[in-house]
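Encode chain A's predicted structure.
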Amino acid sequence: MNILTNKLQFFSSLLQETEEKLSGRYDALQEAYRQYRGEGELAGLKPATMTRNITYELIESEVSTDIPLPHVSAYRANGIKEQNARRIEALLAGLRDSLPFEKINDSDERMTYIYGGALYLVEWDEQVVHGGEVGGVKLTHLSPMHFLPQPDVARIQDMEYCFLRFTATKGELGRSYRLSEEEYLRLEGDGEGDACRVIVCFYKNEAGEVSRFIFSGDVVLSDIEDLYARKRAVCSVCGLDKVECTCGGKAILVSDDFERVSSELVLPDGETVPRGSLIRRYKPRGFPLVMRKNSSCEEEMLGQSDCLFIRPQQVEINKVLSRLHEKMMMAGLYPYKPDDCQFRYDNSIGGKVLNLRPGESPAQFGVLDTTPDITRDLAYIEATYRDAKRILGISDAYVGEGESLAVSGESRKVQVAQAEGRLASKRVMKNAAYAELDALLFAFYLAYADEPRAVLCRDGFHRQVKDAFSRYDFLIRGEDGIYTYDDDYHFSTASAKPTGDEREALWRENLENYRAGSFGPCGERESLARYWASQVECAYPGAEKSLSFFVGEKT
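Encoded structure for chain A:
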């Protein structure tokens, strides 16, 4: 029995044990999704015949399209570190545009409220080529349904292991992992298009290094010890790099912890790194996963699910509506007439003439309406709906109802702000997740981006200027003479750019400040430059061109 077989048996057994311990959690996630979809069978009760999906309605009202902007500051700041912080910000801002953050945010908002959290998986992909830049990050958004954490551990980075579960076709696995014919045949399913379950396990080895093991059934797809380390091929016999080996021994991969500079480097402070100097390669720390929580739940890996907290109200409304449906289906209009009347009623509309005989009166004919009074039922449903809104902190002002309550636009803003205050903690958790994600993205570029990356920064007048992010700008020399990378930066988020009415209010405020002399004497070139710089920051149409006119182009 070889080492791979032993590892496969170990991780397969560990997976089975983890799935058994977390089976209740998986059932709860499925129940939350069924509730969001508006399925009538909830909480083990019989299916409802009629529902009003208040869960979907309220969760959709919480969804925000705002994507937090990166903000980076340097510990022990100096001019060089501050400039590097701006380059990191520019790199991350560029990734906001190049990666599908709009699509990711759209699903992330819903998943977080439904399940209580959602995940980001960060990987480095050498197949990404843009101009002369080789390699880039690959960002995958994951539902917690795909994630199996180490039981009883609340933080991902405190875990010793965790699993991801995916589905892929046999054909895709065969091509991606270059499987042999024998391995391909051992995959689940009979045809190339058949789906197979793929398990990815991230774990910490005995040295505490993040490692990765991927398998499907009893087929090992990938086994990488020390996942973040650069690897190089050496001869298993003589130990030389495989390109230099002449003995013909088998090539094996070993960690390449040091880089030798092939040409002289000039650092931002003017220090020169001589050719041939050793640089310790940078490695990201922790698992390549970031969890966004809805709102914190004590000693739980996931946050609190909105579905769970308003389930009693959703179930109650389903019950009442089902009862109303039955009452309305039983109700109807019943016509009555004298016994000896020969006229026959049917369900057709129009074309009927009722002939009365002498002595008969129309009062002898009529209709009995058995439609029930449902006003109290509807009032109860609305009261239950308001309870659900209060639980989630959603007011009428937040969802656009109760317009008549606002006597002015300003008071309307106050109402919305008060409503948003109840949801502030969820926004804080979103910002915290983005800050953690930004730190991880920076770590990957610091470790693997060999070529400088073109970025757009802003100068003191908020003009876009061309710059470059180079990992070598972060080199510092240690006491032993070996250069290492400086990652001593703090990551947070800035507010998204103002939109709609907020922008227009800021434009007017900037103009008032200019007229009041806050930017300097009116009419002077420098004052106008400051004014248009503020308008650029507030996304005023054409402000970039106006600013360039007063301060000159800069590229």
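The mean pLDDT is 84.
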